[in-house]
């Protein structure tokens, strides 16, 4: 009976380890595509936040509506959180594309491997910041919908 329980435990551990290895391999393989996608997402988010900030500044001088002022205050707070997330992601992106991060005395073929390694090392932080960014943009969208903009 104990032998069966041990065999089941070993099978469970082996399955989990194998699953983690496959996920790691997928992350390694998809790293270049994910890095380019992150760069594009950052550009898009930065443009969106800049245009929203400019719109809030233009509108703040025009209307004195209390509901709009409260919503604008909420949007401004969310905008600050979004800018912080973009800044954190941009720092990671700068690390990924900086020549210092990939310089090595070895061959040029090592550069993609080094970038992939850096990507794997920072992946959890990227995922956390992207989740925050998605939350912020969703909340901003709700506020804008509330204002019928």
Instruction: Round the mean pLDDT to the nearest integer and report it.
Output: 77
- Main β-sheet: number of strands, strand sense, barrel status? none
Distance separating the two termini:
67 Å
Helical stretch tally:
4
Beta content: under 5%
Total E-strand runs = 0
Helix content: over 70%
Shape: elongated
User: Rg from C-alpha positions?
Assistant: 22 Å
What oligomeric state is this? Answer: single chain
Structural class: mainly alpha
Uncertain spans: none
Following the backbone from N to C, one meets helices and strands in this order, namely HHHH
**What number of structural domains do the residues give?**
1
Describe the structure.
- By secondary structure, the chain is mostly helical.
- It has one domain.
- 89% of the residues lie in helices and 0% in strands.
- It is built from 4 helices and no strands.
- Helix 1 crosses helix 4.
- It is elongated and about 75 Å long.
- The termini are far apart.
- The mean pLDDT is 77.
Lay out the secondary structure:
Layout: H1 2-60, H2 66-97, H3 99-102, H4 110-146
What keyword list fits this structure?
single chain; 149 residues; mainly alpha; 89% helix
Brief digest:
The chain has 149 residues and is mostly helical. Helices cover 89% and strands 0% of the residues.
């Amino acid at each position: 009976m104990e032998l069966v329980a041990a065999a089941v435990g070993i099978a469970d551990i082996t399955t989990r380890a194998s699953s983690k290895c496959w996920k790691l391999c997928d992350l390694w393989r998809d790293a270049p595509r994910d890095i380019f996608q992150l760069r594009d997402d950052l550009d898009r988010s930065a443009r969106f936040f800049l245009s929203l900030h400019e719109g809030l500044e233009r509108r703040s001088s025009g209307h004195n509506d209390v509901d709009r002022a409260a919503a604008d205050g909420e949007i401004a707070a969310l905008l600050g959180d979004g800018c912080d997330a973009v800044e954190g992601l941009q720092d990671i992106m700068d690390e990924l594309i900086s020549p210092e991060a990939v310089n090595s005395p070895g061959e040029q073929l090592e550069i993609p491997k080094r970038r992939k390694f850096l990507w794997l090392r920072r992946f959890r932080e990227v995922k956390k910041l992207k989740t925050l960014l998605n939350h912020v943009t969703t909340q901003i969208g709700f506020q804008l919908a509330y204002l019928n903009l």
